[in-house]
Amino acid sequence: MMRALWSAASGMQAQQLNVDNIANNLANVNTAGFKKDRVDFQDVIYQTLKSPGASATEGLQIPTGLHVGLGVRPVATQKIFTQGNMQQTGNPLDLVIEGEGFFQISMPDGTTAYTRDGGFKRDSQGNLVTSDGYTLQPAITIPAEAADINVGDDGTVTYTISGQSGVQQAGKIDIVRFANPAGLNPVGKNLFTQSDASGDPITDGVGTIAQGWLEMSNVQVVDEMVNMITAQRAYEINSKAIQASDQMLEQAANLRR
User: Which sequence spans correspond to the domains of the chain?
Assistant: First the structure.
């Protein structure tokens, strides 16, 4: 059987995964804090028909070998953690991280998750929570009667209460970063979890917090559309290679007719 059939088939499968990834990026173009994915590909093993440096006649040496590649495979999907566009909301509980860093979220099972989505709300006890009700860590509690809520660049949360003098402090929002943020595990709901590849959370060198803004997705629609066209054409060209291989096999099978 011709090697081209299997090589081209691997190319079609790879481009199908590529389009799946592009579709997910486009689906999340308006998702706050979303970071686009990129698929990385590698060529697979080669069949060596002649080794480079092999001896030829009269003591000569072959300068190059004869190799036939056997296709492609996807090896990784990588999150691209470039800063997304910032959208001003005016909501005092909408926060954005300028620079590196993640908000820490306490999960129901006691573990910590991380997010770039700073669209926080208050629950019935006044705790700052995500849209799914997961508590910000360390916990920040703002009373129902609080007014003039302010979040400083360093994450310090203060407020005032009508009829009382002075400013009350609710706590401080700590953000962390990772040596390899692309190694974090995406678990959905705009959350990531730590992995061995990401390393441990680091508290120094993080960005600052801006109040009344949200970081939107870093997906660029035009770039994704170009990537989709490229993937579609690559898929089509690989299918043409399969058709060409099939026609060559058909001609070989008809030699005795």
Answer: 3-81+219-253, 86-215
Secondary structure of 71-115 in the HEC alphabet? Answer: CEEEEEEEECCCCCCEEECCCCCEEEEECCCEEEEECCCCCEEEE
Measure the CA–CA gap between 238 and 35, rounded to whole angstroms. Answer: 30
Please name the residue that has the structure tokens 């440096």.
53
CB hemisphere CA count around 123 (13 angstroms): 14
Side-chain half-sphere exposure of 227, counting CA atoms within 13 A: 22
Q: Which two three-digit tokens encode residue 88?
A: 């001003």
Output the pTM of the full model: 0.88
Q: Give pLDDT tens digits for 9-53.
A: 999 999 999 999 999 999 999 999 999 999 999 999 888 888 887
In tens, the pLDDT along 172-214 reads 999 999 999 999 999 999 999 999 999 999 999 999 999 999 9
How far apart, in whole angstroms, are the C-alpha atoms of residue 144 and residue 142?
A: 7
Separation of alpha carbons 246 and 2, rounded Å: 9
Give the position of tokens 């559309």.
225
